[in-house]
Every structure is written in C-alpha cells, then in structure tokens.
C-alpha cells in the first residue's frame, strides 16, 4: 500500500534514531512498523527493516511479534483484555446490546495522538491482501470475546447460534464504522460506532 494512508513523521528512515535507546515495548515497535508500512509499503518492508530502525536484533523482534503481520495489530492480546474488562465493568442491568455498544465505543476511543496511527493500521488491515489471513485470526479472537460475553448474559453456551450471531454482527458493525471513518477524515469514529451499534440493537427498525 505504498503511498496510501496518512503520513506518519516518526522514524523517517531505516537508520536507528541517534541518541535513542533500543525499542523495548510492543507499542514502540508497532509505531515504527506502521510508519515503515505506510511510507514504503507492507510488502516492501522486512523484519530486518523494522529491527534496524528500532535498534534491535531480529531475535529481539521475535520476542515481541511472531511476524511482521502481527506488528500491524500491536499488542492485541492486551487490547482484548481491555475489551473484556470494559464489558464486565458494565452492570448486568444494562441491556446486552447497549452493553456491547458502550464497551466497543470505549475499546476504540482514541486520544488525539492515536488517530493517525490507528487510521494507518486500519487502512493496512482493510486493504493489504497479505494481511488477510492474520486478520481472520484476529477477527475470530475479537468475536470470541463478544460471544463469550453474550453467552454469559443469555445463559447459553458460547458456541450457541445466538451468541455466535451476535459476535459476527457486532464485528460487521465495527468494521463498517471503521470503513466509513477511513473514507471520511472529518468523521468521528466513536460517533460512527455508536450509530452502528445503536442501529444493530434496534434491528435497524428506525432506519428509513
């Protein structure tokens, strides 16, 4: 996806940043990877490129990520833990679909300095064929969190049709909101997610 997506100004070349200690966190390594993917293309960026820019060895890189495709997703396991926490912090008195809406909006809330990196991440995920297989795995993990929560609320097995359907439709609503957000840079992701999940909760009855 060379030349597409927002411009990210951090780490403008493949040299280690002078005076900067080697990267030691998932997030920093992710930001470096996103910058390189946006500016020189995902397929044209190697693990060696990322490691060199970060000032670390290949061996150290693989302590954080199994592949360069995983870099796009950042520390996704930690993110999913945050989603679970958001869901279970919502009182059981809140209706199921309203709880999902609140949790997903909170999960995707972005500070101003996170907007460009997240836009770059989603542009890559939704447009680079080489990321499709890894994305399918991540989507399944995200759905599983939603399905387990729905199953618990409904006192059903997590592999029951209803929780599974809720997981798939919730993922569809989240992806649709992200696609709309990428198309319109003036739009607000939280507002789009809120609208999509509200419509989903209402069974699209109020859509005319």
TrEMBL record:
Q: What is this protein called?
A: Unannotated protein
Q: Which Pfam families match?
A: TetR_C_14, TetR_N
This chain's source organism reads freshwater metagenome
Print the keywords alphabetically.
DNA-binding, Transcription, Transcription regulation
What GO molecular-function term can you cite, just one? DNA-binding transcription factor activity
Q: Where is the HTH tetR-type domain?
A: 23-83
What Gene3D superfamilies has UniProt attached to this entry?
Homeodomain-like, Tetracycline Repressor, domain 2
Stretches the record annotates as Disordered: 1-20
The record's section on InterPro entries has: Homeodomain-like_sf (IPR009057), HTH-type_TetR-like_transc_reg (IPR050109), HTH_TetR (IPR001647), MftR_C (IPR041347), Tscrpt_reg_TetR-type (IPR023851)
Which PANTHER family does its entry note?
A: HTH-TYPE TRANSCRIPTIONAL REGULATOR RUTR, MYCOFACTOCIN BIOSYNTHESIS TRANSCRIPTIONAL REGULATOR MFTR-RELATED
């Amino acid at each position: 996806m060379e030349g597409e997506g927002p411009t990210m100004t951090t780490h403008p070349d493949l040299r280690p940043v002078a005076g900067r200690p080697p990267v030691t966190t998932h997030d920093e390594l992710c930001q470096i990877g996103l910058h390189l993917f946006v500016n020189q293309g995902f397929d044209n960026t190697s693990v060696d490129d990322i490691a060199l820019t970060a000032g670390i060895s290949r061996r150290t890189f693989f302590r954080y990520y199994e592949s360069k495709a995983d870099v796009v997703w950042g520390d996704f396991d930690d993110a999913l833990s945050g989603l679970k926490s958001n869901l279970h912090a919502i009182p059981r008195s809140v209706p199921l679909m309203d709880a999902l809406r609140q949790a997903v909006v909170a999960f995707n809330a972005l500070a101003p300095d996170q907007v460009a990196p997240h836009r770059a991440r989603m542009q890559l995920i939704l447009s680079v064929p080489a990321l499709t297989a890894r994305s399918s795995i991540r989507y399944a993990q995200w759905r599983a969190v939603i399905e387990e929560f729905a199953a618990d609320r409904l006192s059903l097995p997590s592999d029951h049709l209803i929780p599974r359907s809720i997981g798939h439709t919730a993922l569809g609503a989240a992806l649709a909101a992200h696609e709309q957000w990428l198309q319109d840079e003036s739009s607000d992701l939280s507002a789009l997610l809120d609208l999509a999940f509200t419509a989903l909760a209402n069974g699209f009855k109020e859509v005319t």
